[in-house]
């Protein structure tokens, strides 16, 4: 147990169940002196909130964050920052029928086997609502990273097999396009097709998976602590800890299995007196340490497990085969909503390693990009 | 810093550079009373040792492990188990030319930027030789897992684009086939083609990547500590912490991005009074907790970065562009040798979670499969 | 940073400032299945609450705990238990004058030097109010320990030089006597003298220190993880982490420096077929592991630093010498109120080690007493 | 389990049994660029080595340290530093008689109860020989601290009730006096009396305890991570983790229980434009954070448990009462030899907190003294 804490120096502990009193997070290790207001956090929470569009669930939640500690006169004090969001719009009765019938593709059965008890309402701790704490904490990490010139952005690169093709290279333009449509796909033409497919799939009582790309620019060379707490290893853990993620790639990822060394290796070159890489198959990380190039990850997101179609399961009480149809407010696709959550996880990893890297050298210096 | 420890309860700390005095590992947290002899460890070390075939480097190393502590009269005592393997066959002069010229695709540049100093000989700490400690510790984890009926096996599923097609379903048969050929591919026909391609690529001074599949059977339901130390998250970190790995999949992995929910979800069914899953797209893990089904991971391994072809780099001293050709003993492909290393990482994660799960319930019981 | 988490498996993270919105704690790693209600926690919180008597401050706080997560239908679920207590009766204006004038014996100056910012109101994070989270979490630990037959009790053994002489040997009688008077001294005659001295010292604008003894019975042999996470080492850390504690003893403690080995060593004897120790100078711990004898600790508590007498300090703004007199609601002695807090810390250490010990042997057995 | 690692950023893992192959330590997290040679470490190891005088055991050991990794061309590289010392002069047969008869005051019984197996030879893991790893690692920490102007020194303040009275105030003079006599007492007259008492006690087959004082100068304000990883809390843990230590004081320690607040509080004053404390009852730490004043700790060391006098114990095999007399090479008093070990523990804590403090502020600045 005690698996609800993430990070070594910039460390978060999340808590809360979907239909409990509240969800929240304690951020311990945010350096003192960072300007921070509730709006900084609310902004990212609003991006993850459901009910904004046809692409996401219809549950209405205000999700107003409260800062309960750690901030004084608009600045962090170096003490733990406790954040809470109250649960309001929970209708638990819909889950009564599922109490003894584990939903396929969900954590129900595994939790029951592990703990012999679980809060089944709304998926309990295994609900996507748990990510509220991650996003809230991630927003603080982003502010810290912004001070160092580090920027993070993510987007839906593929949904139900429809791939984005036109991707803006600038972070600001990327962000603008991504937030311009409910599937968070920067390729507007592809986004339209995704929306149409989503409508169709929803009407069939089914769901879609997809791919999300994340990148971080401005990351200085030197972040990452080999040989286990490598930057890519920690990113992989952070992203794979999201319920719907089934695969994580860094840089060329799976494609690298089919490349020759002569194509895979990124040549080092000088540009205006600075070291650059001619390509970025490494995804900005070599030997588990950032190189100064953009950090690029890709994650595979499985289709929403809650579907209206009938599914085979069993009844834990009677011990007999059973069938369920899952009704209620469920995203027919997770990728659009996972974008801010995955960005938050990336921010948390980078903020943690930014601080850890301060101990790398006797003189306290850190590498320049 | 301090990133050289892995695991929470079954915890290892590795140390050593490629051309230093020795490499080794301290295993802290192995329960008392486990029968353990040097041969148990040597067996796995021999599998990772280079110089066994054309598919691997020609460096000759004995790699005899010494148990320096923690074992008394053939059993572990609950105190730290210190293991060391001496470095003998190191020829450092070949690396003189590379001291100031970072090899593309290698950790050289990143280490230099982080620490402002590095042992460049043989890649130093970033050498694959570092995995000796992982494999040695993993062998102990395997013994612990075997007591619980947990078995782990891996194989090369694809090399240079050539895919294995015939995969035995039994673990023993799988293992036998895998060890029957130098590319560790259970499909003998594909293995032959891989070997031919390897020969050709080596003669071109280039290298190949590939895919490795890992599975664990007999894992009881209940392992994994949500929401961050999920079993899949820790596996992803463990495997991504290997130098050449650029992607990690659990179960259906990337394929899941293109499935509908109705195909992705694994139905629960009863077989002989026991709960089973009709399919295993989840890869044996839901909500970050093992379900009792086989754990299945796949990793993408990049082509060996050390290639004989000329490559662009720069000279850190002069600050000017430079070219290098890397000579010496280098595997033209990493996947065959990474198999025992990746198995070791999987074993370490499972052993750690096996112990962690003992604290899951007040009564101290753990779930039955 | 990130020093606000305590414990390895039974792990707590506290948060909150004296005059902030609330104080609280997240308990991660409490095993699933433990019966738990708010009253279980409230009971201990009421014991630490000020305003109950002349021996403690007059601040009136309800200190009602809310369980925000981790409990379902009256039992813990294995997920994080989030507890919060709202701050109500805070009067911050009294602290305006102290903002730039660090109080001698307080953390003000040290916090300012470390973080360059601090919430000065009511001592901020360094306030004794921070211990609300410890006590709340400790109450859960106690329930877990009670299931194993482990009982903890503490008392004031000395106050302002007045020593308790008659100490009941039974835990229940001890507890009853301790709670019968406001100084929590089991010797009623000594308690009366302590109260008189307290009155006198308060009227002089001064304060008193004292000694607190803690004992735990029913602790099985085997708890403690050498060589660093020894049971006595973790107890020492836990108790020394309380603001007013300046010394920690285990068993004979300082007295042992003046004993000969032949008097210090506790002989092992058989009583009714069971192993017992003829004396308990070890305080129930040898080699950092519990022996089955009662665990006994003693702590020295310094006099309350907030006193009405004029004290020398400096003004951080003007950089000049200054004088302060501290007005307001302050305990003239901390020992009576620290008793439940120190008990909580002891409970947290024992609960953590109880769970850690489950991983000590391959067979999962733990030692019997 | 896994209790053999200490520290968060400057982190050590020790291993080894008294009569096993070797003892050693892995230091992970030492910043890169520190000048380090084997002699730096050997110097401190020589101070802890037995066999130097009548005040310590007659076992002859060379205790030559080998640096196996982490140092390149005379400087640390930021990778783990592995250190080993081989065991040579072990005579295990003397311990055969003790295998089933736990020695009173020793860890024998507790280890057996916890692990159900133990290496009984020479006390196994619970031997004082385990501290070789601590001292070796501590020597590296000291070098790191020296770069920041931090100096540590300890001495025997009392032995068998004989107290040192004349203590030099300068660190260098203190050290010189301490090393001038085998009991490590800076008061030469008292030292002579201690030696005489030691002789007498040894001839009686008995042993003595004592008090050791430790101080650190040059520590900047700001070290320590409230509310649990306070500097005093971590020091208490570090020192209490030494086998013979039964009490730890910070500053005025136990004396503070008898002081009034008006005497205990250290007034802040200005001296030459700098903030100073008029007294140092706090021992250099307030609220768990260093203040810039000297850090002062005192520990109580119990008498050596191995004594020649007959003692009552039991036979674990027969389950019957038994008697033992412990023969062999045993210090009649531990305090003189514990001085360098306790200094090492203090150095490890300070080095760790020095690095942790680098993450305290957004701007990366740390407080000036």
Structure description:
The structure is a homotetramer of 369-residue chains. With 369 residues, chain A is an alpha+beta fold. The first copy, chain A, has one domain: Chorismate synthase AroC (Chorismate synthase, AroC fold), CATH 3.60.150.10. Chain A has 8 helices and 18 strands. In chain A, the strands form 6 sheets. Chain A has a 5-stranded antiparallel beta sheet, with helices on one face. Chain A has a 5-stranded antiparallel beta sheet with strand order 9-8-10-16-11. In chain A, a hairpin with a 2-residue loop joins strand 14 and strand 15. The first copy, chain A, starts with a strand and ends in a 13-residue tail after the last helix. The mean pLDDT of chain A is 94. Chains A and D meet through loops of A and loops of D.
Describe the structure concisely:
By secondary structure, the first copy, chain A, is α+β, with helices and mostly antiparallel strands.
Which properties best describe this structure?
alpha+beta; 26% helix; Chorismate synthase, AroC fold; five-stranded antiparallel β-sheet; globular; homotetramer; 8 helices; 22% strand; 18 strands
């Amino acid at each position: 147990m005690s698996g609800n804490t993430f990070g070594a120096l910039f460390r978060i502990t999340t808590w809360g169940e979907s239909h409990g009193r509240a969800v929240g997070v304690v951020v311990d290790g945010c350096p003192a002196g960072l300007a921070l207001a509730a709006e900084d956090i609310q902004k990212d929470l609003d991006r993850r909130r459901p009910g904004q569009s046809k692409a996401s669930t219809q549950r209405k939640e205000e999700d107003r964050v409260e800062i309960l500690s750690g901030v004084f006169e608009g600045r962090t004090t170096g003490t733990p920052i406790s954040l809470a969001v109250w649960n309001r719009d929970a209708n638990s009765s819909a889950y009564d029928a599922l109490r003894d019938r584990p939903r396929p593709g969900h954590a129900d059965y595994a939790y029951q086997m592990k703990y012999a008890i679980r809060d089944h309402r709304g998926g309990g701790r295994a609900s996507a609502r748990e990510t509220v704490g991650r996003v809230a904490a991630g927003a603080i990490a982003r502010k810290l990273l912004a001070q160092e010139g580090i920027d993070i952005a993510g987007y839906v690169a593929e949904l139900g097999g429809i791939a984005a093709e036109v991707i803006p290279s600038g972070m600001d333009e990327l962000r603008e396009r991504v937030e311009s449509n409910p599937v968070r796909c920067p390729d507007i033409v592809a986004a339209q097709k995704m929306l149409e497919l989503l409508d169709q799939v929803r009407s069939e009582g089914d769901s879609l998976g997809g791919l999300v790309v994340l990148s971080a620019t401005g990351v200085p060379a030197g972040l990452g602590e080999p040989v286990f707490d490598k930057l890519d290893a920690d990113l992989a853990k952070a992203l794979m800890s999201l319920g719907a993620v089934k695969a994580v790639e860094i840089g060329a990822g799976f494609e690298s299995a089919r490349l020759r060394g002569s194509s895979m290796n990124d040549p080092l070159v000088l540009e205006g007196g600075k070291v650059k890489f001619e390509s970025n198959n490494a995804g900005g990380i070599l030997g588990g340490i950032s190189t100064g190039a953009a950090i690029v990850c890709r994650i595979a997101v499985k289709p929403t497990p809650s579907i209206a179609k009938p599914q085979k399961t069993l009844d834990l009480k009677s011990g007999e085969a059973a069938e369920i149809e899952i009704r209620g407010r469920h995203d027919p696709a997770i990728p659009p909503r996972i974008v801010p959550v995955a960005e938050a996880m990336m921010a948390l990893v980078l903020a943690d390693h930014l601080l850890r890297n301060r101990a790398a050298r006797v003189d306290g210096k850190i590498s320049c990009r």
